[in-house]
Write the structure tokens for this entry.
Amino acid sequence: MNVVKVKICGLTNLADACAAAASGADFLGFVFAPGPRRVDPLAAQGFWAGLPRGVPTVAVFRDQTLEEVEGVLRLVRPDYLQFHGGESPGFCRVFEKPVIRALSVRVPADLKMAEAFLDVAEIFLVDVPKGDGGTLPAGVAHLAAHLPKPVLLAGGLNPANVGAIAGEYQPFGVDVARGVESAPGIKDTTLMRMFISQAKGQAAARDDRRAPFQENS
């Protein structure tokens, strides 16, 4: 049975991170790049030791310098680094940590960007650039889910639509930030529970329906 993984991203505090983990999140994402969901590295250092054990943490960067990334890593110890900008494969390798490479994809041809990172990224995150409607086109989602590395689908997901996306495309996982918030950077526990339940439940139900009948031997 293929149970879809869920990454809750844009976490800014310990309480929301604990609630996400308790709701069944498989990855906890913290944005250290400028934006409305940025968490201050010193604040993150203060709560990092209290994060739930056993749930991988992800530090998200976008077009930051080597020194800026290293500065964050002196304060916190994430399990994965996610690069969301124009970082080169060589830059992503420097830090010697598992990499999630984000790809901003408008049309299927944009997925060719993944080729340069096949030897670098353990996971790809396929997202829609802001201003492009916010939802992955069906053609992109279908092809992205079949890249030769695990893929997290992102872009306009929320509790109302994630079940259909997860069930249809059976990705390795899905990623959400805004779709489970009450305000930028502030998570809504009920929405997180609904999102995770829909993502995992609908995908598993679809997988069960596809399973071939096996006679008892």
Summary: The two ends are 21 Å apart (CA to CA).
